[in-house]
Each structure stands twice: as structure tokens, then as C-alpha cells.
Amino acid sequence: MTFEIALTGINAASAELDVISNNIANNATTGFKRSEAEFADMYASSTLGLSNTATGSGVRVASIAQQFSQGDISYTDNNLDLSISGEGFFRMNDNGSIVYTRSGVFSLDAEGYLVNSAGHYLTGYPADTDGNISSAISSLRLDPGDLSPQATSEMELGINLDTMSEVLDPFDVNDPNTFNYSTTTTIYDSQGSAHDASIYYHMDAPNEWSSYIYVNDVEVSQAGGNQLVFNEDGTLASVNGNPETLITTNSFTPVDGTAAQTISLDFASTTQYDNPFGINHITQNGYSTGSLEDIEIDGNGIIYGRYNNQESKPLGQISLTNFANPQGLRPVGETGWAETFSSGVAATGTPGSASLGLLQSGSLEESNVDITEELVAMIGAQRSFQANAQVISTADTLTQTVINIRR
């Protein structure tokens, strides 16, 4: 019996050394999670149960437990490299089979799909051409095409008009002496071409102004301009007699062949203070055609395309998955795991939601292997192996002694 018991000890120590060697071998593997061998004692059983004098039958490997503690984060220069800060796994499509991984080494294939080194497709929520993110999960494909132009339809004017300005003669766009101030900004038509929009300000009376808007030297404001009336404290009281500060220009066609357009103008940030004329901000929502220059990913997994016209647009959102019992996942290689009954059902969502962690672009999660800890464990396993081997040697000596007695 001693031989068999000691042999189970040798087998257990050998299994532990196998686990340790695998941990050490994958010390530099991105997203790798170390394992530990867990053991259980064995006793011979009978219909009468165990005796209080039972010596036991040795040891067995109860399980190889994976340790999903967070690995250190290293930083790279690649925006497509991703690490997860917190819980969760990347959800990968392997020809219809779903695999989960903590390794965030991704790149774009020839068709624009986000893939890992094993050729598995990263899944998430795609966006339509307008940047609206879908709720249906699929393999993520990033559209490398140009960003279509958008005609200007909204403009906000943050201007300060000097209250000490003088009342001038009636406005004449061709006579600079008939308007107090002017400024020019850029707007865009339906084909993405830029046009000058000039805005003129004429003081009609104390606290009363007229604003005239011209696009390509053609007036698009109402006849007589937009009437701005200010309160005694310098804030805007009304536009065209209405307390609403939002007005719409007349319809205009910037050039032949483009669509007719109107612009909604918001004067809410326009003031009249005893300060020189100043432009705090002028914003508008139009832009020209843009070519994709870069891809950025935020902590919530939203993938943004950055274009050379200074615009950006969501291209999709990465999904993460978590399990009630991650240790129940089955390793499938390539630092991937598969769902099992023991792991529980996959719970998939967006980064930062529920129990899911956040993403960090331009970084990777290293393995959670501690070489020093593994070397200490290896020494312990080696001593266990040697001790059990010594038990076999001792048992063999005793057996030979018994045999010699009979002689």
C-alpha cells in the first residue's frame, strides 16, 4: 500500500510542476492567467464506512484552478491595443463559436474587421452611417470611408456689443460707416463647400440693435435685419419682439446645384456690456468631406473615427462579457476561454455597465504570473516529489528486509 500512496504523491507533485512550468512559460503572454493545482486526500471506502484507524490512500489532483486576478498594465503606441481595468472579457467570434479573452491585442484586417492574432473577430455594437450605435451585437467592422459632408443648419453667436457705441445712419452693406461691427465665419453647403457668412451689427437706439446676415454677399436675414433688444443689465431681452432667442434665416441656395438650406441662429449668448466689441464664440454644425485619419477608443468602448476635417463620429462600441464563476471557464488556447455549465451564463454589455470594467486604449494587460512566487512553489513541489520518492525507496528497503527474513 505504501508504494501506491507514495506514487500518488509523485503524480501530484508532477502535476503541480506541470502547472508551474506552464505559468512560467507564459510569463510574457499578454492576458494570460496563472493556474494553481489543488489537491484532495483519498481514503478507501467500504459499505461500513471509514474506520477511525484508516490511514488513507494518498492524494489526487482535485482541480487546476485559474486565477483571474488583474495583471499589470503596460502601455503601447497602438490605439487598438486595449486593456480591461476591472472585470470582464473581450467577446470573440471564432467562425461562429464564441471565445472569451483578456488579451486586447487587436488590429484591422483587409475588410476592416477588428481581429486578434488568432483571427478571431472582436464583437460589439456597430454604428450606422450617422454614428448611431445599434443594440444588436455582431463582429465589429470599422468603415474606413470618407465622412459625408453636412450642410450648416445651426449657428450660435456669442458676441458682446459695446453699450457705448453710437447710433448710426440707416444700414447699407456697401457703406462701412453705416454699421458698428461686423464679423465673418465659415458655413458649408450640402456638398461640403465652404462659404462666407458675414454678420453686421447696427445700433438703432440705446439697447436696440439690428443684425444683418449675408451669405456670399446675398442677404438671408429678414428684411430690415433681426431686431435685438437688450435689458438694462446688458442681457438679451428679445429677438424680433420675441423672448425666444432662436430665429431662422430665409431659405437660400449657396451655389447652383446644391440643396436649398436655412440656418437656425441662436443669439442667447449675445450681450451688450460696457466692454469693447468682442467675439466670445461662433459655432456652427456644418463641415466638409472628411477622410479618416485616426481611430480612438474611450473607456466605455466607443470607437471614434477622427477625420481630417476636425470632425469625429462613432464607428461602433466594444462589448464585454462577465460570468458568475470565471474559474469555471474552459481554456481553449490562444489565451481564450469557453463558457461551461460551471461558469454560468455569459452576461454581455458595454464597458462600465453593471459589473463590467472600463477599457484603456493604447495599453495591454500583462500576465498575472509572479516569477518569484512560481519559483518558490517549484521548490516546494520538487521537495514533495523527492520526499515521495524517498518513501518508495524506504518501502522497497523494508520489503527486501522481509524477503530476507524468509530466507
Present the secondary structure layout.
Elements: H1 2-25, E1 35-42, E2 58-66, E3 73-75, E4 82-85, E5 89-94, E6 97-101, E7 107-108, E8 114-115, E9 121-126, E10 138-139, E11 154-162, E12 181-188, E13 194-205, E14 208-215, E15 218-219, E16 226-230, E17 236-239, E18 246-248, E19 264-266, E20 271-273, E21 278-284, E22 292-297, E23 302-307, E24 312-318, E25 320-322, E26 330-333, E27 336-338, E28 347-349, E29 358-361, E30 363-365, H2 371-406
Parallel strand pairs: 11-19, 11-20
Antiparallel strand pairs: 1-2, 3-30, 4-29, 5-6, 5-9, 5-25, 6-27, 7-8, 9-10, 9-24, 11-21, 12-13, 13-14, 14-15, 14-16, 16-17, 18-19, 22-23, 23-24, 25-28, 26-27
Helix pairs in contact: 1-2
How does the helix and strand content classify structurally? alpha+beta
User: Which value, in Å, is the CA radius of gyration?
Assistant: 37 Å
The helix content, as a percent range, equals 10-25%
pLDDT < 50 runs, ≥5 residues:
none
The biggest beta sheet is recorded as:
11 strands, antiparallel
Mean pLDDT over the full residue set:
93
Q: Which outline best applies?
A: rod-shaped
Number of domains: 3
Beta-strand percent range: 35-45%
Distance between the termini: 23 Å
List how many beta strands DSSP finds.
30
Query: What is the overall number of helices?
Result: 2
